[in-house]
Design goal:
The protein has about 240 residues and is an alpha/beta fold. Helices cover about 35% and strands about 30% of the residues.
């Protein structure tokens, strides 16, 4: 019962947050979307020309401009207030409903069985700023599932041995480019979405630049022994999948 009330409470917070965001955009701060796009454009252009002084000024200026816009948003202030209220409500609930422990002397205590877990080091890490790419030499393949902020990601599958079945690449990025190199004997399926950017898979290029959802797969994907399924999402940036 308590879990259902908690879920309803969080759902109402999300609904109120969306309503406040719409009100802020439509009535109180009509230039918000334009400001966010300007900040994103400055960061994107600054990364393209990062070797020049102007590019560095655009990049860091865009980040500062983006942070200022987010902090000035009514929705952001509402989110902070909601977090504080949520913590306060949780504190009150712990006081009203303290946890009680009732010993049961009639039942024998069952010893829980420990599961054996093996932790492995992933190929990529979640990072807010920076570039990541696979090693130049031979490496062991591990499925990719990362979230990044600002930066490029490059995956070269020609230096690894893919397992039989389906390998998975899952990348969520705010601003940056994603490049994935696929060997000729490996089939591929691509699911991509972005707000601003271009998409190129082998010889096929998606001409839609704004707000695109793109899905494509090779003809022999379903029956292939080795195949790669790629999920990518970008706010601003390009996706390129090519043969090597």
């Amino acid at each position: 019962m308590f879990q259902n009330n908690k879920n309803d409470y969080l759902a109402w917070l999300v609904v109120f947050g969306i309503v406040i965001l719409l009100l802020e955009i439509l009535f109180f701060n009509k230039g918000l979307i334009f400001s966010l796009f300007v900040a994103g454009g400055m960061i994107y252009l600054g990364r393209k020309k990062k070797k020049k002084a102007l590019g560095k000024w655009l990049f860091y200026g865009g980040i500062i401009f983006l942070v200022i816009n987010v902090f000035n948003m009514m929705t952001f202030k509402f989110l902070l207030l909601a977090i504080v209220l949520h913590i306060f409500i949780q504190f009150l609930n712990t006081k009203k409903q303290p946890t009680t422990i009732t010993p049961d002397l009639n039942k024998t205590e069952e010893v829980p069985r420990e599961e054996t877990l093996i932790q492995t080091k992933p190929l990529f890490e979640n990072m807010f700023l920076g570039q990541q790419k696979t090693p130049q030499g031979v490496y062991e393949w591990k499925d990719v599932n990362i979230q990044t902020g600002i930066g490029d990601t490059m995956i070269d599958l020609s230096y690894t041995m893919l397992p039989r079945g389906e390998a998975v690449v899952f990348i969520r990025n705010l601003i940056g480019n994603i490049q994935i190199l696929i060997p000729y004997d490996v089939e591929v399926e691509v699911h991509h979405s972005s707000i601003i950017g271009k998409t190129r898979v082998f010889e096929h290029e998606n001409n839609q630049v704004f707000n695109q959802v793109f899905q494509v797969k090779t003809a022999g994907y379903e029956g292939a022994e080795q195949k790669v399924k790629i999920f990518t999402s970008l706010i601003v940036g390009n996706l390129e999948v090519s043969r090597i």
